[in-house]
């Protein structure tokens, strides 16, 4: 009797994918129309209904104000952060501030927390999987970028919960990609995961030794991706139209949306064929009111020439990751390609040249992360092991994504758990009172690599409260900081004298109030 299958979900910025291990082999799960990739988009329609996934992608083109794209860029970030500010400038939908630093999207007068939006995408993935497998599925492994901090991981887990999913593990995307290629167990190597998606680029250097996946170095640009090729081509189309008809296309967002759509289609076509016809009907009118079309032929080489610099930018980031790890391309054993944009022949060719070697691309780059997550899910329940994939037998061990520490008196970041420490791991520290009869002690916790505390991400504050009245310095509380197998921070505290557990309450600074979370739970059920 086999156990309940576990979903492996790649919850992406642009697209998501779900896979599951059944009878020893991995299935990437298609939707009703045969599509194995879903857009990570949620559209709120006028009649109150909600579209999610590929259907919502169409809607987001015509109604961008009521459609949430790229929720992953916002999740777990504080409202005042630079990332949220830049998204508020570039995205047509409204992002508003909650009571503290948490963010909500506001659509048609209703507020949704980011985990709710991501939860809707996850629910869609779960529904697709259940229809395919023919049974309810509750458990899942969800992937996140290697540099996601505690809050972003917590909020991703909450998104799963709101989708009715028990998230049994959160793993790093590059680790999942490596697992899909059978790394782990006895297969040891130093690998580069080159992940070029729709809107983001990430490079991760991983050391895989005896089931431990250590992120040696990671770097990325969260505004560099397939979108840039589409933009480049859309602009070229505007120039071509001007040349053909001597008509300047004005700044109409609807026209721009149409051009972007055709540009993306043409880009994909040029992945398959050498030449493509760019054709857009009735893009504008001439002076007499007659419709004007845009039509020209583009070949792969010409398109490549126009876009080389975009790919070149990824190598500057690879240089940075290698430099930080004090490695050169010769030190790498393997390069794995992840993300839809790595399908482009231009990208493949240039990546090969940069790394000076053949690259691993046999596993579909859109599916490789979900496949790795499904393999890990199967390994965690010790069932449905994948034949020939040794990684499945291994309980993988990730490492702490960022250093965890507290604010010391002198505003210096006191590191308790170093970045890259194998997880799960813990560290204890004794705290005491500085005033007589002090009733509570608060400790600020941060994640990051800077010695200056303010330059790191503030995770929240631990309040040790209800302390016994005593002269200062007499109360001793031992606080244990743990990073669990998901990379999540868990804090517990104990009164050293009485041995009693002390309530340690961490309020995540970019998280939501317990009331808000209760409301989300109520809405999702
Ligand atoms: P991801 O974020 O990994 O899902 O990647 C999405 C990006 O990959 C989008 O910019 C797509 O346009 C791009 N993409 C997907 N398939 C292809 C293809 N066959 N050729 C070129 N780009 C593609």
Q: Which features would summarize this protein structure in a list?
A:
six-stranded mixed sheet; 3 domains; five-stranded antiparallel sheet; Actin, Chain A, domain 4; globular; single chain; 30% strand; 525 residues; 31% helix; Substrate Binding Domain Of DNAk, Chain A, domain 1; 12 helices; alpha+beta; Nucleotidyltransferase, domain 5; binds adenosine monophosphate
- Provide the structure class: alpha+beta
* Beta-strand segment tally: 27
What value does the average pLDDT take?
Answer: 90
Tally of separate helices: 12
How would you describe this structure to a colleague?
With 525 residues, the chain is α+β, with helices and mostly antiparallel strands. The protein folds into three domains: 7-224 and 312-397, Nucleotidyltransferase, domain 5; 226-305, Actin, Chain A, domain 4 (Alpha-Beta Complex); 404-517, Sandwich (Substrate Binding Domain Of DNAk, Chain A, domain 1), CATH 2.60.34. 31% of the residues lie in helices and 30% in strands. It is built from twelve helices and 27 strands. The chain has helices at residues 54-62, 71-74, 82-90, 114-133, 150-162, 173-180, 226-245, 253-272, 300-324, 345-355, 368-380, 514-524; strands spanning 7-11, 15-22, 25-28, 38-39, 42-44, 50-52, 67-68, 94-97, 103-107, 110-113, 139-144, 166-172, 189-196, 201-209, 212-221, 275-285, 291-299, 334-338, 404-407, 413-417, 425-432, 441-447, 457-464, 476-483, 489-495, 501-502, 504-508. The strands form seven sheets. Strands 1, 2, 3, 4, 11 and 12 form a six-stranded mixed beta sheet that branches. Strands 20-19-22-23-27 form a five-stranded antiparallel beta sheet, with no helix packed on it. A hairpin with a 2-residue loop joins strand 9 and strand 10 (110-113). The longest helix is centred in the middle third of the chain and has 25 residues, at 300-324. The protein is globular and about 90 Å long. The structure holds adenosine monophosphate. Adenosine monophosphate (AMP) is lined by residues 12, 14-15, 197-198, 225-227, 264, 267-268, 271, 339-341, 343-344, 366.
């Amino acid at each position: 009797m086999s156990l309940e299958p576990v979903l492996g979900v790649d919850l992406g910025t642009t697209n998501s994918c779900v896979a599951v291990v059944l009878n020893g082999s991995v299935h990437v799960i298609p939707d009703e129309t045969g599509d194995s990739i879903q857009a990570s988009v949620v559209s709120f329609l006028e009649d109150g209904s909600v579209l999610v996934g590929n259907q919502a992608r169409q809607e987001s083109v015509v109604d961008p104000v009521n459609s949430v794209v790229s929720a992953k860029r916002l999740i777990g970030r504080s409202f005042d952060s630079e990332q949220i500010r830049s998204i508020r400038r570039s995205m047509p939908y409204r992002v508003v501030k909650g009571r503290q630093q948490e963010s909500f999207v506001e659509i048609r007068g209703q507020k949704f927390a980011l985990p709710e939006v991501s939860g809707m995408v996850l629910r869609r993935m779960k529904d697709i999987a259940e229809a395919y497998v023919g049974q309810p599925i509750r458990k899942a492994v969800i992937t996140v970028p290697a540099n996601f901090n505690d809050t972003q991981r917590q909020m991703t887990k909450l998104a799963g919960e709101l989708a009715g999913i028990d998230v049994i593990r959160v793993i790093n995307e590059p680790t999942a990609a490596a697992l899909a290629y059978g790394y782990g167990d006895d297969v040891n190597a130093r690998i580069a995961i080159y992940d070029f998606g729709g809107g983001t680029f990430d490079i991760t250097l991983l050391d895989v030794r005896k089931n431990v996946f250590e992120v040696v170095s990671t770097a990325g640009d969260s505004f560099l991706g397939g979108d840039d090729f589409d933009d480049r081509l859309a602009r070229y189309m505007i120039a071509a139209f001007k040349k053909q008809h001597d008509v300047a296309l004005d700044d109409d967002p609807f026209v721009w949306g149409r051009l972007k759509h055709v540009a993306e289609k043409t880009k994909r076509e040029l992945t398959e064929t050498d030449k493509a016809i760019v054709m857009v009907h009735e893009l504008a009118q001439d002076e007499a009111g007659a419709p004007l079309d845009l039509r020209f032929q583009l070949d792969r080489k010409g398109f490549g020439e126009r876009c080389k610099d975009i790919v070149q930018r990824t190598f500057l980031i690879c240089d940075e990751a290698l430099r930080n790890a004090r490695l050169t391309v010769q030190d790498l054993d393997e390069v794995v390609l992840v993300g839809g944009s790595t399908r482009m022949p231009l990208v493949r060719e240039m990546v090969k040249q940069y790394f000076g070697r053949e690259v691993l691309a046999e596993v579909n780059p859109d599916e490789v992360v979900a496949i790795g997550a499904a393999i890990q899910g199967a390994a965690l329940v010790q069932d449905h092991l994948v034949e020939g994939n040794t990684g499945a037998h291994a309980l993988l061990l990730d490492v702490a994504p960022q250093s965890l520490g507290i604010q010391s008196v002198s505003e210096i970041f006191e590191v308790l758990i170093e970045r890259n420490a194998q997880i799960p791991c813990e560290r204890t520290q004794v705290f005491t009172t500085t005033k007589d009869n002090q009733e509570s002690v608060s400790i600020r916790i941060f994640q990051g690599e800077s010695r200056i505390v303010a330059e790191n991400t503030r995770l929240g504050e631990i309040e040790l409260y209800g302390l016994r009245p005593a002269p200062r310095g007499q109360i001793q509380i031992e606080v244990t900081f743990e990073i669990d197998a998901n990379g999540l921070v868990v804090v517990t505290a104990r009164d050293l004298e009485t041995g009693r557990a002390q309530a340690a309450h961490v309020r995540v600074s970019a998280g939501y109030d317990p009331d808000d979370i209760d409301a989300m739970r109520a809405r999702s059920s």
